[in-house]
Design brief:
12 helices; 0% strand; globular
């Protein structure tokens, strides 16, 4: 390969990396609207039932998107792009050769998606929103990095370690945990375990998705299977918790936005970026969620941040910028 061809390859890689990072950051922005949307709607549902409704609507739509895309690939296979046909072909061949591995990955991914929200809500309910959020979101990149090494995907580099450390420091400062006195901080073993379970659940479905993508699956196919199965399992949960609030105008609007915006659109962007970036990088980039949530709280809900929280925003933003512009 000549010098000019090498430079072209490097340029293409940098552009692709930047777009993938932008897609993941956009998904984090959509994730961040969840809390503000729930506060503005004031639909009256419990946190668990709202989470179940979000999963039912969003997961069902992601599964529907995959069904539509699959039917198009089948009917219009002659006009489909060569890369897409090859990608589908690799997925079919991989599933045929090792159906047990693929089935296990799909099951693990769906279980991770299904377990994340109840673990997250249980952790924040037991130990408070600040500590629960820090433990869940802060542990997710760490678990993802460890599982990526175990799965043999890749080892972390210095830039990721530095960016992740800055981002985690920012999450801690932004949460306001350090602003509390010792008497106000309450920790329970069950709450800590639930929050760490949320971080581990996130890491499990991220690593499982990355493994399927490396086997030739498309991002839409992967997210469709994960969230479709999780949505089916969440239907009886929503019925048992009481979903009457969804029948109200505010409740319906909230469920539609959470399902369409913060789940379907967000995870399509998430999956597209995950197909082009290491799983650990994606996990760190999604820490933009608390940063954007804080900005929305200031702009929409009139919240105020103290000096440590402002420093946390700066540290978190620095880590994300460092990681998003890596290699440029």
């Amino acid at each position: 390969m000549g010098r000019g061809e090498w430079q072209n390859c490097v340029t293409i890689w940098r552009v692709t990396n930047t777009r993938a990072s932008a897609a993941v950051l956009a998904s984090a922005v959509l994730f961040a609207t969840t809390g503000t949307s729930v506060a503005l709607a004031d639909a009256g549902g419990s946190a668990w039932s709202i989470g179940a409704a979000r999963l039912v609507v969003g997961g069902g739509l992601l599964a529907l998107v995959e069904v539509v895309l699959r039917s198009r690939r089948t009917v219009n296979s002659g006009g489909t792009r060569v890369g897409e046909v090859r990608g589908v072909g690799r997925a079919v061949r991989a599933a045929t050769r090792r159906p047990g591995v693929v089935g296990a990955l799909v099951t693990l991914g769906a279980l991770g998606v299904l377990a994340y929200q109840p673990c997250f809500f249980a952790g924040t309910h037991a130990n408070g929103i600040a500590i629960g959020t820090v433990l869940a979101l802060g542990s997710a990149p760490v678990f993802t990095g460890v599982l990526a090494i175990v799965a043999g995907q890749s080892r972390p580099d210095r830039i990721w370690l530095l960016a992740t450390a800055a981002a985690l420091l920012g999450v801690v400062l932004l949460s306001g945990v350090l602003s509390h006195s010792r008497g106000e901080v309450r920790l329970t073993i069950g709450g800590v375990a639930a929050s760490l379970g949320a971080g581990l659940s996130y890491a499990v479905y991220t690593i499982a998705a990355k493994a399927l993508l490396e086997r030739g699956w498309t991002s839409g196919q992967t997210m469709g299977w994960f969230f479709g199965l999780a949505a089916a399992a969440a239907v009886p949960v929503l019925a048992g918790l009481g979903g009457g609030w969804v029948a109200t105008p505010r409740g319906l609007a909230l469920a539609l936005w959470l399902g369409i915006g913060t789940t379907t659109a967000a995870y399509l962007l998430f999956g597209w970026g995950l197909a082009r970036l290491p799983a650990r990088t994606v996990a760190t980039l999604t820490l933009a969620e608390p940063l954007c949530a804080s900005l929305l709280g200031i702009a929409v809900l009139g919240e105020r941040l103290d000096t440590p929280s402002l420093a946390g925003m700066a540290a978190l933003g620095l880590g994300l910028v460092l990681l998003a512009t890596k290699g440029r």
